Amino acid sequence: MSDDHEHHDGNDDHELRVSKIRDGTVIDHVRGGQALNVLAILGIDGSEGEELSVGMNVPSDRLGRKDIVKVEGRELSQDEVDVLSLIAPDATINIVRDYEVIEKHRVEPPEIVEGVLSCPNTGCITTGDEPVTSRFEVLEDGVRCSYCGTIAREELASLIET
Amino acid sequence: MRHDHLITSKQLSREDIETVLDRAAEIDADPSAVADRHANTLLGLLFFEPSTRTKMSFETAMKRLGGDVVDMGSVESSSVKKGETLADTVRVIEGYADALVLRHPKQGAATMASEYVDVPLLNAGDGAGHHPTQTLLDLYTIRENAGLDDLTVGIMGDLKYGRTVHSLAHALTNFDVRQHFVSPESLQLPREVVYDLHQADDGAGIREHDSLEEVLPSLDVLYVTRIQRERFPDEQEYQKVAGEYQIGPEDLEAASDDLTIMHPLPRVDEIAPAIDETDHAAYFDQAHNGVPVRMALLDLFLSDDGAGGALGGDGDE
Ligand SMILES: [Zn+2]
Predict the structure, then answer these.
(1) Which NCBIfam families does the record match to this protein (chain B) (predicted)?
(2) Both B181 and B95 in a single domain?
(3) Which among A53, B16, B109, B250 has most CB atoms closer than 10 A?
(4) Distance in Å, alpha carbon of B106 to nearest chain A alpha carbon
(5) For residue B228, what pLDDT is reported?
(6) What is the pLDDT of residue A77?
(7) B53 is catalytic
(8) Which residues contact A159 (CB under 8 A, 6 or more apart)?
(9) What is the percent of chain B where pLDDT is above 90?
(10) What is the enclosing helix (H) or strand (E) of A89?
């Protein structure tokens, strides 16, 4: 019934696609197709030598299809986990040490996200050359720029600052 | 809480608004009583966008309180032209002035600038965002002409880009006011403004229309704004809507005798000159009210007890 596969023995189909990690973070139950956006929102692109495994559109009881992201050697902070909720509201986070899941939590939307999304309003002061960090208030169904008040509901992933 | 800066009308409670309007009325009745109240005080004018009227209105207000202004001058002739950021500019001018007035083409500019300065900063318009001092003079004019309760207000024109409309509509949710928004579909209120109005008022007092006809007879106040030609992709599109949102003497037959017509000015052809001489026209008074209202604001923000003491010790923010 659970499609959490971290403790399954042997030949679990998923295991073949996404290998186990020793120490780090497994982000599970990411909505299908959002894995790369999850990495983007966390600012992880592999350029610092992180060992990454990404499974996309693997079968899931809960979501039908889901993505899984495994980051070796890095435990996500609560802030990072919270920000994930914007694009992966169903995600579960497993912190792994020595192959064991030692902590497991669901994401929770933060009240504010800073420096993660860029404002879609081209007339907004944060989109110019000012030394200002973007800041959004998180609404029930979207985010709102703290500077210009613009509300973004869909396509939040496209607003991720690069 | 203290209001250290005036950024949007959303930060103003009903009590705050009444404090400003009452003070403005006192000043209006006897300007000489405050003639030296802020001697040796300097107001910094930072207008990154030309606005002769708003700027002159602040300048007049400060001088009538006995103070003076330092003016950044036009953007063309300033260091901004050389690429200086707004954040740097306000930090420099803060060293010269006791308070700052900022007009800027970017939305959210006043919020950002206020994060860099300790002196009071008054937003005099940030892009399509907010224009709270205009709102206060609008409210002052409405109160003088029609009172602020049990009121039906129509707001017509470019509601999408009209920052004066966004600020006024929100401020009116503090009062018992029914608001009718009249615009072409392409210039309706932005959804975030509608969101805020619903948050503030459950949306109960708010209706949107595309024609003035059906609401005009019920209005106590009609607030008209300019539909800007440049907002339309082509001239034909503009011509199609423009006529719909102009008001002439013949339209007023359906209106109440007590209807007050307002406009933040400048107007182009939204209000026929023939209306100017009628009792309906309040737009020139409205413009003149900018001085006592801005005097009241400056007085409140520059007084020793600070705006916090003066503007509602416990507002809702
Ligand atoms: Zn913005």
Answers:
(1) asp_carb_tr, PRK00856.1
(2) no
(3) B109
(4) 5
(5) 82
(6) 78
(7) yes
(8) A117, A118, A119, A120, A152
(9) 77
(10) none
Same domain, B185 and B112: no
Is-catalytic flag, B103? yes
Q: B215 and B75, same structural domain?
A: no
Its domain, for residue B153, covers 133-286
A contact test, residue of B84, B112, B130 with most A CBs within 10 A: B112
Domain-wise residue ranges, chain A: 24-106, 112-159
**Are A148 and B86 in contact (CB < 8 Å)?**
no
CATH 2.30.30.20 assigned to domain A112-159? The reply is yes
Q: Per-residue pLDDT for B88 more than 60?
A: yes
User: CA-CA distance, A101 to A97, in Å (whole number)?
Assistant: 6
Together in a domain, B206 and B92 = no
B134 is in an annotated binding site: yes
Q: What's the gap in Å between A125 CA and the centre of ligand 1?
A: 7
Cβ–Cβ gap B195/A131 under 8 Å: no
Do residues B16 and B30 share a domain?
Answer: yes
Residue B307 lies in a domain: no
Compute the distance between CA of residue B126 and CA of residue B271 in angstroms, rounded to an integer: 26
Whether B149 and B23 map to the same domain: the answer is no
What value does the mean pLDDT take over residues B219-223? 98
Cβ-based neighbours of A78, under 8 Å, separated by 6 or more: none
Question: In the structure, what pLDDT confidence band is assigned to residue B313 with cuts at 50, 70 and 90?
Answer: very low
**Spatial contact of A79 and A101, defined as CB atoms under 8 Å apart:** no
- A137 Cα to the center of ligand 1, angstroms: 11
Q: Which residue has the higher pLDDT, A80 or B305?
A: A80
Is B82 labeled as catalytic in the residue annotation? yes
CB–CB of B111 and A125 under 8 A? Answer: yes
Interacting residues of B138 by C-beta distance below 8 A, sequence separation 6+: B164, B168, B223, B262, B264, B286
Convert the pLDDT of each residue in B21-56 to its tens digit: 999 999 999 999 999 999 999 999 999 998 889 999
If you average pLDDT over residues B104-126, what whole number do you get?
A: 96
How many A×B Cβ pairs under 8 Å? 55
Tokens matching residue B261: 């017509």
Catalytic residue among B23, B64, B130, B131: B131
For strands A100-106 and A51-60, give the pairing. Answer: unpaired
B45 lies within 8 A of chain A by CB:
no
Please tell me the distance between residue B156's alpha carbon and the centre of ligand 1 in angstroms.
26
Q: Kindly state whether residue B4 falls inside one of the protein's structural domains.
A: no
Q: A9 pLDDT exceeds 60?
A: no
CATH of range A24-106; options 3.40.462.20, 3.10.20.90, 3.30.70.140, 3.20.20.70: 3.30.70.140
Our count of domains for chain B comes to: 2
Beta bridge partners, A103, equal A95
The reply to whether A148 sits in an annotated binding site is yes
* B266 annotated to bind ligand: yes
Q: What is the mean pLDDT of residues B303-314?
A: 60
